[in-house]
Design brief:
Structural class: alpha+beta
Strand content: 25-35%
Length: about 375
């Protein structure tokens, strides 16, 4: 599973990894607003697609005014970028990342991955930052160093000192290397990553070591341990977030939303044994999707009881608030109790009798506020 650059940098920030400030944008207006919230005088407008080579394809632009951020956002959103990794059909740009500009002095390459031969996390470093590492390996293999981390000891200081020597970093920059690399290793292990690529890792003219770009891949088999990461996977084109229980119900829910003229923004399957706390967490994940303009909760209670869903939804709404229309359809085990919990919550939640009724109500509500 791969995620976008802005999502990858958000993950790295959790572990204290230095990355430039940036804000994702899904429209020209949001890009302009983001630029106003970031410090200038230089901004970078970055197309967010799952492919390398964005810069060469015109998907990364450095600008010097908020007006130019708006201009580049209008150019990029809805356009198709064709890179050496997308194939001839390219990929449509549906989101941007507006980032503060960095005064770059030097660029390096750094990555971590799972070495299948040793069953350990391996690091790869090179002085040739900003280039495809495959090309560097082909033309200048002597400029690449790699090593594996012993899982019994974890990331030790001498690993970072080795990288600093290879990259020619001394003094304060060597100390920063000794700070940054253990955090990258910690993030890699904690989140069950399969790939973490920083290209480029840069030294700024002010003497700071920062991760200017970030690409992360996760082990699909470990996603059950990371619902916050798995939630990033399903990013659709629509405006209605869906909370369901069961893959079949998810498909039916998304289909009927399409039938009534709109499209799903995402869906989250709470499964058959979720608790009130897990349901609340799931609701928060759905509302964190910037594209969501309305939410449809569609639960057929078997093992998953309707009252548990209702308690979780009510708890989440009370904690994070409700900024978009919410329609809840419950059926099955403890359905009367679940409906009663929602009715007595005094929250602005619309109940539905069946799936058809629910779909019509959420589509009508979202269109009314669009």
């Amino acid at each position: 599973m791969n995620i976008h650059e802005y999502q990858a940098k958000a993950v790295l920030r959790e572990f204290g990894v230095p990355v430039p400030r940036g804000i994702p944008a899904f429209s020209v207006a949001e890009a302009e607003k983001a630029a106003g919230e970031l410090d200038g005088p230089v901004w970078v407008v970055k197309a967010q697609i799952h492919a390398g080579g964005r810069g060469k394809a015109g998907g990364v632009k450095v600008v010097k005014s908020v007006a130019d951020v708006k201009k580049e956002a209008a150019r990029l959103l809805g356009s198709t970028l064709v890179t050496h990794q997308t194939g001839p059909h390219g990929k449509e740009v549906r989101r941007l990342y507006i980032e503060e500009g960095s005064a770059i002095d030097r660029e390096y390459y750094l990555s971590a991955l799972v070495d299948r031969e040793t069953s350990r996390v391996a690091f790869v470093a090179s002085t040739e930052g900003g280039m495809d590492i495959e090309e560097v390996a082909r033309t200048s293999p002597d400029k690449i160093t790699s090593f594996s981390v012993d899982p019994a000891t974890g990331f030790m200081p001498h690993y970072a000192r080795h990288v600093a020597r290879v990259l020619g970093l001394t003094g304060a920059l060597a100390k920063q290397t000794e700070s940054v690399l253990p955090k990258l290793y910690q993030a890699f292990v904690a989140k069950d990553m399969s790939l973490l690529e920083i290209n480029p890792l840069v030294v700024t003219k002010g003497g700071d070591l920062i991760c200017l770009d970030a690409k992360i891949g996760f082990d699909d088999n470990a996603l059950y341990r990371h619902p916050e990461i798995a939630a990033l996977r399903v990013v659709l084109d629509g405006a209605i977030g869906c909370m369901v229980n069961g893959a079949g119900l998810a498909m039916a829910t998304m289909d009927i939303i399409k039938l009534y003229g709109m499209a799903p923004a995402n869906f989250l399957d709470v499964g058959g044994s979720a608790t009130k706390e897990k349901v609340a967490a799931a609701f928060k994940i759905i509302t964190s999707d910037h594209n969501v303009k309305g939410i449809l909760v569609n639960i057929f209670g078997g093992i998953m009881k309707c009252d548990v869903i209702a308690e979780g939804v009510v708890a989440a709404v009370r904690e994070v608030g409700l900024r978009v229309p919410l329609v809840v359809r419950l059926e099955g085990t403890n359905v009367a109790l679940g409906k009663d919990i929602i009715a007595k919550s005094n929250l602005n939640v619309t109940s539905a009798d069946d799936l058809d009724d629910a779909a019509q109500k959420i589509v009508k509500a979202v269109k009314a506020v669009a």
